[in-house]
Amino acid sequence: MKSGGYVYIMASSPLGTLYIGSTSDLVGRVWQHKNKIIPGFTSRYNVDKLVYYEWHDSLSDMVIRERQLKKWNRNWKLRLIIQKNPDWNDLYNVVLSQNGYTPE
Predict the structure, then answer these.
(1) DSSP sequence for 15-71
(2) Confidence grade of residue 2 (pLDDT, cut at 50, 70, 90)
(3) Residue 102's pLDDT is what?
(4) I want to staple 103 with a disulfide (CB 3.0 to 4.6 A). Which of 14, 24, 37, 93 is the partner?
């Protein structure tokens, strides 16, 4: 079983409102954002598209990276997303497929 976790960025739309989070269960956590299960920032601002994610082998590395990205200015975050996902595709179905689920 994997022991690390993911740092991820959700967006409301291309160049829209961004949310940075971390989790050891990316599929489940993104599903919660998409279905507005937990009241808060992402449900309030309709931030429901997974536009970036990265894996970290240890939870401590994951937390360090999440804190680092949260301190970045907006342009750096946008550049990071655009480098990996220039079309701002919702990557949720990719993550589902990678984890053995049938994409929605």
Answers:
(1) TS-EEEEEES-HHHHHHHHHTT-S-SHHHHTT--EEEEEEEESSHHHHHHHHHHHHH
(2) low
(3) 81
(4) 93
